[in-house]
Amino acid sequence: MAAIDQPIPSAPARSRAWTDTLHEWVATVDHKKLGVMYIASALLFFVIAGFEASLMRYQLFFAENDAIVPETFNRLFTMHGTTMVFMVGMPMITGFGNFLLPLMIGARDMAYPRLNAWGFWMFFFGTCLFYFSFLGADGLYGAGTAPDVGWFAYTPLTAKTFSRGNATDYWILGILISGFGSLSGAINMLGTAISLRCKGRTLGKMPLFVWLMAVVSFLILLAMTPLAAAQVMLLFDRFLGAHFFDTQAGGDAVLWQHFFWFFGHPEVYILIIPGFAYASEIIPVFSRKVIFGYPIMVAATIAIGVLSVGVWAHHMFAVGMQRELNIYFAAITFMVGVPTGIKIFNWIGTMYGGKLIFKAPMLFCTAFVFQFLLAGLTGIMLAAVPFDWQLSDTYFVVAHFHYVLIGGLLFTVFGAFYYWFPKISGRMYNETLARWHFWLFLLGFQMTFTTMHIQGLLGMPRRIYTYPADRTWEIWNQITSVGVVFQGLGAVFFFAAIIWGLRKGEKAGPDPWDAWTLEWSTSSPPPAYNFAELPEVRSRRPLWDIKHPDDPDWKYE
Amino acid sequence: MSEAAVAHPPGTQDSGKRLDRGRSGMACLIFTESCFFGIFVVGYLFYIGKSLSGPYPSDVLDFPIIGTVALLSSSATIMLAIRYLRKGNVASFAIVFALTIALGILFIVMTALEWNRLIFENGLTIGTNLFGTTFYSLVGFHAAHVCVGVLLMSLILTLTFLGHVNEKHSYNVELVSWYWHFVDAVWIVVLTTVYIIGV
Predict the structure, then answer these.
(1) Mean pLDDT, to the nearest integer, of A405-431?
(2) Span B123-132, average pLDDT
(3) Does residue A41 register a pLDDT over 50?
(4) Is there a contact between B179 and B152 (Cβ–Cβ < 8 Å)?
(5) CB-CB under 8 Å, B36 with A538
(6) Is A202 close to B3, i.e. CB distance below 8 A?
(7) B25 and A555 in contact by Cβ < 8 A?
(8) Can you give the pLDDT at residue B3?
C-alpha cells in the first residue's frame, strides 16, 4: 500500500452549470457527500435551536418579565429540546460517522449506499415537517402553533383532550419520520463495520472511533424503534380512540414515561458516545501517544451500552414508583458511571507523559474531559433518589444535562469539526479565529451552566416562563443569560473560522496533523472512490507503521 | 515501501473474510424490528386483566390453529424452495415458493376472518377497551409485517415467472427468507402472549 494513496488523476474540471452540481448533491449515494449534508443540516438546526434558547434566556432575564407569553415559551422549550436532540445531535453523529467510518476501515463506501441516501432525505423531510408546524399546525390557539408539550411529550398532556389540534401530531410525525434517518444510519454503520473492513482490520484492530460508532449503532437499533412504537401508540390514542395511555379506561399514563425513557436514556448515550469517539481519536494525536488502554476502552463502552438499557426509570424517580424499583434503578445508575469514569482515566492517561499540542481540536477535547467529569458527577448526585426528589424538574437537572451535552458532546463536536475539517474540505481553518471561538464559548458555557446549578439548588423549577422577584433567583438567571451572549459570540467565531478556512485556508494536504488512521492516507478531500487500492493493514495505526517501520505498532498490539 | 508492509505480525493472520453485508444488514433489521414488537408485547402483557369492561379475551378469542399451522409450515416450505433454487431447479423453486406465498395469504385471510367476527359479532374494536387496544395493535402490526413479506415474495415470484431468477439469486431469496422466519418467530411470541398467557 502506498504511504499516501495516489488518487487516479481525473479529467480537468470544466465549469459546470449549477443545476449539475445541485443534481450531484441531491442524487448522491456517496457517504462523504451524505455525511456533509447531515452535518450541514445539523448546523442549520443548531443555529435555529440556539435562537430559540436565546429567546427563552431573554425572557428569563428579569423576574416577572412579559416579553414572551407563556404559550410561546412552552413552544420554545419544546422546539429547542426536540430540535437539539433529534435534529442537531442525531444528524451530527450520523454525519461524522458516515463520512469517516468507511475511510477508517479501508472501504469504498458504506455497506448500503442507497439506504444511506434514503435515510438522509427521510431525516430532512421529517425535520422540515416538524418546523412546518410553526406555519401550519392547528393548535388550541389557531394556526401557527408548534408543539408545546415538552421534548418528552408526557401523557396525558398529549392526549387528544388536552392537546387539541395537531401540534402534538407534528411532534410525533416529525420525529417518527426523521427517526428513519437515524435507523438507516445505524444499520449502515453497523453493517459496514461488520462487513466491509479491509484485510487486517480485525475487530481488535478497528480504530476506537469505529468500535464506539458500532456500539452507538447497536443502541440506536435497540432504542429508536421503541420510541417509534410508543409514538404509534400515542397516535392510535389520539386518532383511533385507543386507550394505551388513557386512565379513564384503565390505562396508565405513566406507561408512556416508561416507554419514552426506555428510549430516552440510551438516546443520551447514543448522543455522547460519538463524542467519546472523537475525543479518543483527537487526544492521542495531539498528545503524540497511542490511546491508553484500548481493550478496556472498548470493554467500558460495551459495558456502558449494556447498562444504559437498564437505567431508564431514573428519569421517573418523582413519579411514585415502588421503593424497590427506585432502589434498583438508583443502583444501576451508579454503576453506569463506573465505565465512564474508566474512560476519563484513560484519556487522562493518554495525555499524561505525552507531548501536548494545544491546537483547537485539543483545546476542545481537554475542556471536554474536565467538563464531562463534572457533568457526570452531577448525574451521580441525581441518581441518589432523595436528592433527586428535591431537584427533579428544577434547573439543576437542566444544568446537568446541558453540561453533559454541551460541555461533553458539543465541545467534542467542535473539536471534531476542526480536526477533520482539513480532510473534508481540503483546507486548513483559521487557528486564531478558532481560539477566539474556544475561549469565548468556554467562558459563556461556564457562565451559563455552572450558575444554572445554583438556580436549581435554590429551587427554581424548569419550564416556567417567569418567576417571582423575591426568590433571589434573578441574579443567577441574569448571569446565565449573559453567558448565552458569549456562547453566541463563540459560535460566530466558529462559523468565521470555518468560512475563512473554506475561502482562504491554505491547502491541507492529506495529513496535516501527522495522524495515524487510514483516513489521513487519502487526499483531502478524498476522491469519490476513497482508495485506489483497498489497503491492507497490520495494526490499529497503519500510518504509524508506515512512518515508523523500525517500530511498528503490530509488535505491541 | 518497507518491511512493515511485508512482515506479518505474529499469530494474527486475518483472512479478510467478513460476514457479507446482506446478512449483517438483514440481521440488524430483524433486531430492530424485534425491539419494536417488544414494546407492543410489553404493553399487551401489562394490560392483561386490566380492561374495565367490554369483551374479555376468554369470551371472544379462539385459538387460531389454521393460521398458525399455515404460517409455521410456510417457514418450512420457504426453506425447501431455497434448497431447490440453490441446486438450480427453478421450476420446483417456483412451485414451492408459490405455496409459501399461498400459506402466507391463508394466514392473512384467517386473521381477517377473525377480525371480522370480533368487530361485527363481538363488538371489539381498538377503542372498546384495553384488550381491544392492545390486541389490534399487536396482532395488526404482525399481520402488516406478514403482508410486507407476502409482497416481497410475490415480487420474487413475478421475476421468476419472467425468467429473471436463477441459482445465483438464492442468496437474495435467502435474505428474504430470514425476514419471513422472523415474521414467523414473532407470530409464536404473539400467539403465546395473546392466546395462551392472556386468555
Answers:
(1) 96
(2) 95
(3) yes
(4) yes
(5) no
(6) no
(7) no
(8) 38
Distance (Å) from the alpha carbon of A540 to chain B's nearest alpha carbon:
12
The alpha carbon of residue B52 is apart from the nearest alpha carbon of chain A, in Å, by 6
From the centroid of its chain, how far is CA A203?
Answer: 25
> Which uninterrupted H or E stretch holds A142?
strand A142-143
Q: How many residues does chain A have?
A: 557
CA distance A327 to A54: 38
> What residues of chain B have any CB closer than 8 angstroms to a CB in chain A?
1-5, 8-9, 12, 14, 16, 18-21, 24-25, 28-29, 31-33, 35-36, 38-40, 43, 46-47, 50-52, 125-127, 129-130, 133-134, 137
Query: Which of B2, B35, B129 is the closest to A249 by Cβ?
Result: B129
* Cβ proximity of A145 and A138 under 8 Å: yes
User: In whole angstroms, what is the distance from residue A8 CA to residue A6 CA?
Assistant: 6
> With contact defined as beta carbons under 8 Å apart, do A219 and A270 qualify?
yes
Residue B27 scores a pLDDT above 60:
yes
Question: What is the length of chain B?
Answer: 199
Q: In sequence order, what E strands does A95-245 have?
A: 138-139, 142-143
Q: Kindly indicate the confidence band of residue B16, based on its pLDDT and cuts at 50, 70 and 90.
A: confident
Q: Which of B36, B126, B127 sits opposite A228 (nearest CB)?
A: B36
In degrees and rounded to multiples of 5, residue A198 shows phi and psi of -75, 175
Which residues pair with residue A143 across a beta bridge?
A138
Query: What letter would DSSP give residue B196?
Result: I
Q: Which neighbouring-strand residues pair with A394?
A: A461
- In tens, the pLDDT along A6-25 reads 556 655 556 778 899 999 99
What's phi and psi for A522, nearest 5 deg?
-95, 170
Number of DSSP helices (H) and strands (E) in chain A, helices first: 17, 2
Contacts of A475 (CB under 8 A, 6+ apart): none
Tell me how close the Cα of B102 comes to any Cα of chain A, in angstroms: 30
Chain A hits for B125, CB-CB cut-off 8 Å, are 241
The Cα of B9 is separated from the nearest Cα of chain A by a number of Å equal to 6
Amino acid symbol at A147: P
Interface contact A199-B14, CB threshold 8 A: yes
Distance CA A169, CA A163 (A): 9
Flag if B137 and A242 touch (Cβ within 8 Å): yes
Instruction: Find the DSSP H helices in chain B.
Output: 3-6, 21-46, 57-60, 65-86, 90-120, 130-161, 170-191
Q: Do B25 and A249 touch (CB under 8 A)?
A: no
Shortest CA gap A38–chain B (Å): 21
- Which of A11, A61, A2 has its CA nearest to residue A476? A61
Per-residue pLDDT reduced to its tens digit, A532-550: 888 888 888 989 988 988 8
CA–CA min distance A84, chain B (Å): 24
Task: For residue A527, give the DSSP letter.
Answer: P
Q: Is A504 left (phi over 0), alpha (psi -120 to 50) or beta?
A: alpha
pTM for this structure? 0.93
Please tell me whether residue A242 adopts helix, strand or coil conformation: coil
- Cell numbers at A109, concatenated: 463506501
The residue to which cell 472512490 is assigned: A529
Collapse the DSSP code of A427 into the 3-class scheme (helix H, G, I; strand E, B; otherwise coil) and give the result: strand
DSSP-based three-state secondary structure for B133: helix
Do residue B16 and residue A199 have CB atoms under 8 angstroms apart? Answer: yes
Per residue in A173-216, pLDDT tens?
999 999 999 999 999 999 999 999 888 888 888 899 999 999 99
Q: Count CB pairs under 8 A between chains A and B.
A: 132
Candidates A202, A226, A552; nearest CB to B35 = A226
- % of chain A exceeding 90 in pLDDT: 84
Q: Which residues of A touch B24 (CB under 8 A)?
A: 111, 190-191, 194-195
The 10s digit of each residue's pLDDT in A481-496 is: 999 999 999 999 999 9
| Closest residue in A to B53 (Cα–Cα) | A249
